[in-house]
Amino acid sequence: xxxxxxxxxxxxxxxxxxxxxxxxxxxxxxxxxxxxxxxxxxxxxxxxxxxxxxxxxxxxxxxxxxxxxxxxxxxxxxxxxxxxxxxxxxxxxxxxxxxxxxxxxxxxxxxxxxxxxxxxxxxxxxxxxxxxxxxxxxxxxxxxxxxxxxxxxxxxxxxxxxxxxxxxxxxxxxxxxxxxxxxxxxxxxxxxxxxxxxxxxxxxxxxxxxxxxxxxxxxxxxxxxxxxxxxxxxxxxxxxxxxxxxxxxxxxxxxxxxxxxxxxxxxxxxxxxxxxxxxxxxxxxxxxxxxxxxxxxxxxxxxxxxxxxxxxxxxxxxxxxxxxxxxxxxxxxxxxxxxxxxxxxxxxxxxxxxxxxxxxxxxxxxxxxxxxxxxxxxxxxxxxxxxxxxxxxxxxxxxxxxxxxxxxxxxxxxxxxxxxxxxxxxxxxxxxxxxxxxxxxxxxxxxxxxxxxxxxxxxxxxxxxxxxxxxxxxxxxxxxxxxxxxxxxxxxxxxxxxxxxxxxxxxxxxxxxxxxxxxxxxxxxxxxxxxxxxx
Length: 535
Prior knowledge:
CATH topology of the largest domain: Rossmann fold
Number of strands: 14
Largest sheet: 7 strands, mixed
CATH superfamily of the largest domain: Malic enzyme, N-terminal domain
Radius of gyration: 23 Å
Number of helices: 23
CATH class of the largest domain: Alpha Beta
Structural class: alpha/beta
Distance between the termini: 19 Å
């Protein structure tokens, strides 16, 4: 019975006759032995009967808690259908309802009350060989804001993609939420809220808790990679600067988003023509994600021989106070490299007319900001305007795929953060590309683990972005796609992992010897969700 209740060991009705005798399962299961394929068909049929995406999410979480091997087989075989359920956009709704749909704990919660004893909490996790941790403090969940302890759905979902997309074993993954309170009044007033019912702490107390967590996590798991997820902009940048040189860590909202956006821009240039150095990108939103994209773009341009000043001038930012320009009041330190000498404006459409961008990128977390006026202005300036509304979930996108295509007569080169359905424009079926970070972070993680790199560098993200863009073929571009199909995500992650590992060995960041066949080395590390293979 214990084996049936262990999601890593459980096979359900797929236990063979011999296994049923060996593990004393005789009589505890229905008599007919099922194949894994039969189980997948049954699960998929039941999933499709669920009336809402949230009900589907709950069903999939229950499956994952019951039989992880079957969960990942079903996910891998049906990734285009299932990924939007376990991750964006449905995971946003699931996080909002996390306390109401909570069934069984998954991952670790570390709170302010645990200061001084985080070592002991990490010892409570039953798996010894953790290689990837995804951690959040729940303050900026997607574009939904502060969800406190309900943010646990994000690290759980991200690590599911680490396994499905890159083959990191489920038992090697650890989701963690750092609960330091919430400033969400609705949650604080809810007597059923499952997190700390107090306002967020800041300052020294916050940093001391994070420092203890980082020290304890790396002492418990010396080879672990720690991915930061959905911290607010200020904390995200500060913690990245604080830890990146001392720990094997990265921030996916900053660096992963930057790599997937840069890859999309490189793919778009295959359609629009021209070089990366001739692009001018205007961002709606100037938080950590946007600054991260601008910084990585500048890094790529400098590698092509562009001066630092000119590399920064490729990126322009617009926020709640208007166009970020030199001399404007209240410019943050992270905005300074991108505050150019230029007349200011508080109207985004006017900013488009003034800056004359080749691409607009939405990272605002607010919907409908790419208005018809804005998109049509982009079409006047560019024969093939690049339109990237990257905010998640779908409800927060700056515009929809249908709007971008219809307002430009199908000329827009489009990618979004969350998936949109195909659009028929002038008799042509266009399949909008999704700039999903799942194309980047699983491969980055696998490459770091495979190379045993001591740190994660910008050069690794540049290598990942280039590799991803190189995998987009002419047939995908013709259909409007700027990224490979999700069905090839394992090959994509493997290729990115190899590129990242090569960069680790090239830069001397690996503590081991480079394998003779690096691609085979990476492939051999990838877990496949088949019965008989330890999870």
